[in-house]
Amino acid sequence: MEHLRIRWFQWAAPQSFYPLAGRLWPWFAALAAALALAGLYLGFFVAPTDFQQGEGYRIIFVHVPASWMSMVIYLAMAFWAFLGFTFNTRISGMMTQALAPTGAMFTFLSLWTGALWGKPMWGTWWVWDARLTSELILFFLYMGYIALTSAIDDPRRADRAGGLLALVGAVNVPIIYFSVKWWNTLHQGASISVTKGSTMAQTMLWAMLLMALAFWAYSIAMALYRVRGIILQRERHTRWVREVVA
Question: Which of 77, 88, 112, 130 allows an S-S link to 183, with CB 3.0 to 4.6 Å?
Answer without folding.
Answer: 130
